[in-house]
């Protein structure tokens, strides 16, 4: 049998995930000889309210066991020209992300939702 060069990588666990609207995928990898799981997560937060209302922290579908390296947000409108808010990430931990809905002052508030992508291990 030919050695394919997988070495310790052949012993890694299988990828796992939750393929829902709010979900994740874990990808096993070897870092300096130590097995780790690279985690990609995504979710949609609730529709925003007025800019003056504190938006709730959003819990990740799976807490990162080591560190969340980055959390990004985009904005999902309601398919009308009246949605006039965007989201920005203000902070994150291994288990949650805080976003802030920012209103531009010309359209309606409360018509958008944040889309979140987070990566870590």
TrEMBL record:
UniProt superkingdom: Bacteria
Putative tail fiber protein gp53-like C-terminal domain boundaries: 39-121
Name used for this protein in its record: Putative tail fiber protein gp53-like C-terminal domain-containing protein
Species name: Photorhabdus temperata J3
């Amino acid at each position: 049998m030919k050695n394919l060069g997988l070495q310790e990588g052949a012993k890694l666990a299988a990828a796992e995930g939750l393929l829902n609207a709010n979900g994740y995928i874990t990808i096993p990898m070897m870092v300096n000889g130590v097995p780790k799981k690279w985690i990609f997560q995504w979710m949609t937060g609730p529709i925003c309210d007025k800019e003056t209302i504190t938006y709730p922290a959003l819990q990740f579908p799976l807490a990162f066991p080591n560190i969340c390296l980055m959390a990004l947000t985009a904005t999902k409108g309601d398919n009308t020209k009246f949605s006039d808010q965007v989201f920005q990430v203000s902070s994150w931990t291994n288990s949650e992300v805080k976003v802030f809905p920012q209103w531009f002052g010309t359209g309606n508030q409360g018509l958008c939702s944040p889309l979140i992508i987070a990566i870590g291990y």
